[in-house]
């Protein structure tokens, strides 16, 4: 990954052009305190305090004396996020320091959005750099915000890298680099060793991939005290659909099918960088769902690690298969909390679109904490139901479970119910069915790979785990 892509606050905290954040209704009050020349300039520029507006105001010598950014009103701000970043994008290169107008409760998120505006994926082409630096606002924990930004950078870089350079071995290499950076332990089972270790579904999904792209299970551990937290991320580095091959239009974005793995690695980085007192475990089944004479077939029946049998009715429903073995392994240690992230179903996108991260939890305390944290962290999530009456839809009769129920109804819910069968009963289990991609450029969220749900979970962890 491109370690030069670090997003940090300005190092000289005494420098910076004064930056005033101005709501539409506060503009006239602000102008009353300015000299006549500044008022004339601001009015002539058309600055009205609207969202995304910015204005550079010269002093008597013609050099910039201050900058203004519009903050609209609360109703319009509710339609998006990272509005300070939206305005900052129009400012020229330089260092800026918040002088007035930014609500204290919004300072952390708005400054995070500013940092994320500097993200560029430049592995294959120089994308330039974002030149507007921000001094960390008063009252903001700069190290925490920088850690959140760094975790998001890792997630985005992993997702944005095409499968030619982000196969199972490359995903393993990224996990090893992360473990080295923070002194974590890591072990990997690869290829036929998965059968010997009793991970038959991970092996079945990934065995048809070409040379150097063998399936594997990545197991990383960090921390030796505190509550146990296990993160499981779907690492399908490319998904052709297998023998139930996807049409071309559906295959174009399948480099992002390892978005769950990218998300848990980014979240793990934040947890370790902030030294949370937890026993962290990260499990990533890394595979490529390819087409070959050895590919698993519709109609096959696989036996999972926990002994449940699964009838394969569609080889394009492979993510839940590899996650099942990993969840079964995680459940064997009964962690205090286990959370899976996966780009699992198109049904979730139909239900909530690309901006919301749907999650499933049977625990009302977990659900409430995540929903609240998602709002505060500008990482919107939405609770979906583990609807028990739909359990019958994932039971085909010939085997314990069906990986692709017919009928087309409740696809995200039935996938979540399938995963719950492998998560055990002794841990609080939560599943995120994420998209992992921003379809268009937005403030703080450039088009391309995107983390979802990780900041919400990180913000909720202290309360949920009693930290």
TrEMBL record:
It comes from Pseudooceanicola algae. Its EC number is 3.4.11.10. GO terms for cellular component: cytoplasm. This is Cytosol aminopeptidase. Belongs to the peptidase M17 family. It comes from the Bacteria. Residues 314-321 form the Cytosol aminopeptidase domain. GO terms for molecular function: manganese ion binding; metalloaminopeptidase activity. It is an enzyme of class 3 (hydrolase). The lineage of its organism: Bacteria, Pseudomonadati, Pseudomonadota, Alphaproteobacteria, Rhodobacterales. The keyword Hydrolase applies. GO terms for biological process: proteolysis. Keywords: Aminopeptidase, Hydrolase, Manganese, Protease. It holds the Pfam family Peptidase_M17.
